């Protein structure tokens, strides 16, 4: 299944810091809520570093201190989702739902839950959560939520809504590579090649020509072909072959390289 955006689950964790760790142990004992908050912050750092077992221990302690902490419940959902086994994915759903019941206005919880639902192929449910996150003004990861929403619409076959979501993501963050490459793809499929080129070139300016994803290289190859730019096309093909020889995109190129079909899908 195509991953939602280019970032891992960790990329959607709250921008938590360890500032709370300056709190003394005695204060933590006197304030269970603060203790839960600090342990949740520590767990976030463990997840970022890939130490899921330590993160689980910290979150267990946090929830023992305050099982009504919405962020701790959300983080447990993120942790179980990242571990990825079927049993833990099932458990994650309960933690996300509890987090929302405890704080229904938290856009980060909605965004993370939407991403989780997308991963499981529950696109209609994901759409609802991501719409809420994407419409929450002031949310510091709103552009990411809108990218996720756009990719969910693509899975639902609603290209018009996807385009609107990606354009909204660009308004929230003009340097969104996800939105740019997805819009390039949408415009290419509509045979609006000049507009597709503009979005693709914007993507390349942001990430650099040598740091393109397989998806972006495939978009660039097809745009160059449509524009009759054989030299650029061959450069991008060489790049795709060198960097992503086992990718679906390169396998698709191999199947289509001798095709005279007007639009390569």
From TrEMBL:
Origin: domain of life: Bacteria
Secreted in keyword set: no
InterPro entries: Pilus_4_PilW, TPR-like_helical_dom_sf, TPR_rpt
TPR-type repeats, residues: 36-69, 143-176
SUPFAM superfamilies: HCP-like
Keywords: TPR repeat
Protein name: Type IV pilus biogenesis/stability protein PilW
The organism of origin for this protein: Acinetobacter pollinis
């Amino acid at each position: 299944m195509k991953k939602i955006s280019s970032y891992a689950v960790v990329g959607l964790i709250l921008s938590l810091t360890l500032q709370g760790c300056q709190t003394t142990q005695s204060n933590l004992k006197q304030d269970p809520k603060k203790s839960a908050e600090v342990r949740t912050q520590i767990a976030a750092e463990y997840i970022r570093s890939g130490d899921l077992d330590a993160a689980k221990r910290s979150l267990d302690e946090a929830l023992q201190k305050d099982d009504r902490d919405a962020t701790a419940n959300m983080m447990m959902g993120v942790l179980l989702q990242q571990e990825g086994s079927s049993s833990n994915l099932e458990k994650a759903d309960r933690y996300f739902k509890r987090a929302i019941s405890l704080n229904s206005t938290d856009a980060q919880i909605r965004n993370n839950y939407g991403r989780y639902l997308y991963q499981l192929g529950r696109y209609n449910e994901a759409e609802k959560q991501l719409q809420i996150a994407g419409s929450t003004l002031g949310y510091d990861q709103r552009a990411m939520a809108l990218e996720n929403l756009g990719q969910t619409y693509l899975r639902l076959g609603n290209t018009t809504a996807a385009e609107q979501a990606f354009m909204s993501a660009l308004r929230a963050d003009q340097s969104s590579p996800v939105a740019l490459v997805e819009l390039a793809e949408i415009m290419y499929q509509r045979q609006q090649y000049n507009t597709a080129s503009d979005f693709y070139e914007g993507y390349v300016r942001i990430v650099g020509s040598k740091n393109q994803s397989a998806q972006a290289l495939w978009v660039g190859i097809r745009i160059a072909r449509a524009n009759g730019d054989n030299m650029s096309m061959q450069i991008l093909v060489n790049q795709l072959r060198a960097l992503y020889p086992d990718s679906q995109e390169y396998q698709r190129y191999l199947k289509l390289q001798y095709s005279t079909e007007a639009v390569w899908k």
